[in-house]
Amino acid sequence: MKNKGERKSCTIIHKKSSIIIASPRLASIGGIGIYIRNLATNLFHRGWSVHCIGTNERGDAFEQLAKEINCHDLSSMPLSLRKIFAAAKLVNRINPHILLLNNCSLMHYALPLLAPSIRPVMIIHSDDPRFYEVAALFSRRIFRWIAPTPGVAEGFRKYLSPDRWEAISVVSHGVSEERFHPVLIRRRTGPTLTFVGFIAENKGADLLPTIMRQVADHCPDVQLNVVGYGPLSEPIRSEFNRLGLGEQVVFAGALPPEGVADVLGASDLFLLPTRIEGFGLAIIEAMMCGAVPVVSRLV
Q1: Is residue 6 pLDDT above 80, yes or no?
Q2: Quick check: 7 pLDDT over 80?
């Protein structure tokens, strides 16, 4: 029997931290895809309960992620109110501490249906006004917004009332030092440029032939590596050929991170004439591999 006044011992049970990472697709390449895979796997190996949801497409990283992490595919359901309710039901059933949204419009519309205990956190991956508008949906239900740069945070403030500005935090994206680092690779005699990204106008891919023509006029032995995929792949390939540069441009296609690191490690310059950019993981990856970035100045 315990003496009077003796404090009762108690056991504190800590619930395992849990998170749902929602995205339109679970992709193996692209900035958002790489961010999600790095975050999901690192949290999992740190003891978190991690769930990933693809709302619009299954994505080519789904199967690989599903080997360790709970992955859910909502892409088979057509876009409708029923799908929004189904998404909310799934999230409420898992009942995570955090719901991390990555440009995921469908899940934003489900926010009013979620349990109050769930904390939605929105990652603003782009400074495109369309993404700002999505990020501001049901703003009173968002716990935090994460911007990768001060510029993205500043651009987003105009979409919120001033009393919600304090909920915006700036947290830069991370890059794997094990994968991206300077290595001694035998380089070409002439200069090598590399473009890595979605081959579309938003990344400035349509400007590559003109840029390359001007560079080749001064450095005839220059080579350009184009890493990625997108709707302008064939049009710019034809333009390179028309300008007489077809033999100096290598289209590498979509590469895994290890392949991107190898190409960057053998490059002198990284070229990204992008028009829209939130953070630009490829810029950091290039610098870590020793390739000097030549990029757009976005203000």
Answers
A1: no
A2: no
